[in-house]
Amino acid sequence: MKKNITKKMTFVGLMTAVISVLSQIAIPLPSGVPITLQTFAVALTGYMLSYKYGSAAVVTYILLGAVGVPVFSGLKGGAGVLFGVTGGFIFGFLPMAFLCGLSSKMKQIPALLMGLAGLFVCHALGTVQFYFISGEPFIAAFLKVSAPYLIKDIISVIAAYYVFRLMSKRKVFRID
Prior knowledge:
Strand order of the largest sheet: 1-2
Shape: globular
Number of helices: 7
Distance between the termini: 12 Å
């Protein structure tokens, strides 16, 4: 029993680190929302660790960033990032990981649909927070910080699911 808890905690820490590292692979854009591999990392975390431990990894990532550890894109940290123009996306990682994790034992199509639902919740939260902070009209905010990223993020969620399936088949990474 104790070994299983230690293993789960280790995987939570490992996937928190994966999210943190893939957040640094970023292409800055004029909107202030960079292109990153965070979406892939968060979806993979949910699929790999299930809803409970995937969510724990994302909460750990958010808390590390909130206290100032530079885990957010561009080696940023602090509560100011969470409550700035990109913070809604970071908060949106939590329902995204949860829904990916909830679907990790489902068949392919429902699992992908749940992952995409999580992605759309993430984008909705990100757009709404950007809208409120920037003062731009909602449609303009959506076109600036969500629409340009949707295709890349949809591909990221799908790729994360297939990486998860491949790793599961090969029993490379098992939390249960």
